[in-house]
């Protein structure tokens, strides 16, 4: 068995499978993970802020950029993670597979890290298509798994730090190549594998076992020692092309210059009612009747003062026009022109405290975001509107008619549609 493991490593050796390449791909993968984690935590606290938290409202496209970057970095993890697994695949055939208890813990932590990474990026990708073929709540699990992955990443870096330090720069690689050119003629890893094979033969003799094991060893012996079909430059080129393809063919759902290349993104810019995509329809939300009822009114409440406004009364107030994006957690976004009443003007009509947060309530009867909270930094921002029009037309039912919220730098799930009540909350 040990000889079979050694021979398998020998057969799998290629110039692209070496510690330096593992470090190079690992650096890129680590950056992608950190970017995903940072932007993901930011998105999480926007949706579930702690009482003391305040968020920037400028630039107005901040969430569009941060969440778009989150999705792009997550998609880029696919080719990078597969490339890293390709490089270290021969390590699965190390013999003995476990050298000590610490070595067992190391291999177990790596297995857990790889498994958790694959789960995280897979469920994240499926979320962009709003497909949830699992029994657990996506948002909570995705957030918790992000912290687990960061912990495992730190542990992995700590374990592999001597190798990472040694192969961080190309200098050591150049020195190794010079040594190989002076004395070694076989591909990287082949000399060690051959020495290990000879040691195994010395320990157990050269007699080949019979049966299936013997035939397997015969096949391994006939396998070329170190195929060189995958060069390091070719491997990096393939990884780069794969990464550019998966990112370039999906990033157009967020970044307008790449819109023409958006082949696989679940949303296409300009497609939808009034030229804006729709995530949650009025039919799905169950608000078709209540949103079109003649008696609809928007209620504002603060400090015991409560007032209601019909749509006609809201339209009679001074109107403000702003250009803001709808930027959703799934990664897509669409810039649009909104027109309506400034929220701070409505807040003043009920004498709301300037430092008060607001609770927004939708006509929806169910759903995680039928009630949302808005901090004073958004309430008092001049770009925050109770929107009545979209792109020069009366707000479509699918976009929140008769009135919806729109504010700078907020996730789309917090831009509450089908508004029914706005209530000030004082600390």
Automatic annotation (TrEMBL):
Gene Ontology molecular function: electron transfer activity; oxidoreductase activity
Transmembrane segments: 21-45, 65-89, 110-132, 144-163
A Pfam cross-reference name: Oxidored_molyb
Classification via NCBIfam families: TAT_signal_seq (TIGR01409)
SUPFAM superfamilies in the cross-refs: Oxidoreductase molybdopterin-binding domain, Transmembrane di-heme cytochromes
GO BP terms in the entry: respiratory electron transport chain
Signal peptide: none
Domain spans labelled Oxidoreductase molybdopterin-binding: 292-425
GO cellular component: plasma membrane
Keywords assigned by UniProt, alphabetized: Membrane, Transmembrane, Transmembrane helix
Highest taxon above the source species: Bacteria
Annotated protein name in UniProt: Twin-arginine translocation signal domain-containing protein
């Amino acid at each position: 068995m040990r000889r079979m493991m050694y021979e398998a490593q020998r057969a799998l050796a290629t110039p692209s499978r070496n510690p330096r390449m593992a470090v190079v791909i690992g650096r890129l993968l680590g950056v992608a993970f950190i970017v995903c984690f940072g932007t993901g935590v930011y998105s999480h606290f926007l949706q579930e802020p702690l009482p003391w938290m305040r968020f920037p409202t400028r630039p107005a496209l901040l969430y569009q950029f941060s969440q778009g970057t989150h999705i792009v970095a997550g998609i880029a993890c696919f080719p990078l993670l597969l490339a890293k697994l390709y490089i270290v695949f021969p390590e699965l055939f190390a013999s003995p597979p476990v050298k000590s208890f610490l070595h067992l813990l190391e291999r177990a932590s790596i297995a857990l890290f790889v498994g958790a990474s694959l789960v995280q990026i897979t469920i994240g990708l499926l979320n962009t298509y709003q497909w949830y073929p699992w029994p657990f709540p996506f948002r909570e699990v995705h957030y918790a798994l992000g912290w687990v992955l960061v912990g495992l990443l730190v542990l992995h870096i700590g374990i592999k730090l001597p190798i990472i330090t040694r192969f961080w720069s190309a200098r050591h690689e150049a020195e190794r190549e010079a040594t190989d050119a002076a004395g070694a003629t076989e591909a990287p890893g082949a000399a060690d594998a051959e020495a290990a094979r000879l040691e195994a033969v010395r320990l157990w003799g050269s007699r080949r076992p019979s049966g299936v094991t013997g035939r397997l060893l015969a096949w391994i012996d006939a396998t070329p020692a170190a195929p060189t079909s995958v060069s390091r430059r070719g491997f990096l080129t393939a990884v780069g092309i794969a990464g550019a393809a998966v990112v370039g063919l999906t990033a157009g759902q967020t970044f307008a210059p790449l819109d023409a290349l958006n082949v696989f993104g679940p949303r296409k810019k300009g497609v939808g009612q009034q030229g804006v995509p729709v995530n949650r329809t009025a039919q799905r939300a169950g608000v078709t009747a209540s949103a079109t009822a003649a008696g609809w009114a928007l209620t504002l409440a603060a400090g015991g003062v409560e007032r209601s406004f019909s749509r006609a009364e809201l339209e009679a107030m001074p109107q403000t026009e702003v250009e803001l994006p709808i930027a959703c957690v799934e990664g897509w976004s669409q810039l649009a022109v909104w027109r309506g009443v400034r929220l701070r003007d409505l807040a003043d009509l009920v004498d709301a405290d300037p430092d008060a947060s607001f609770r927004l309530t939708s006509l929806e009867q169910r759903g995680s975001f039928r009630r949302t909270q808005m901090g004073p930094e958004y309430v008092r921002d001049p770009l925050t509107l109770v929107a009545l029009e979209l792109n020069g037309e009366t707000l479509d039912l699918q976009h929140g008619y008769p009135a919806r919220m729109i504010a700078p730098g907020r996730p789309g799930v917090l831009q509450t549609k089908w508004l029914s009540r706005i209530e000030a909350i004082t600390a």
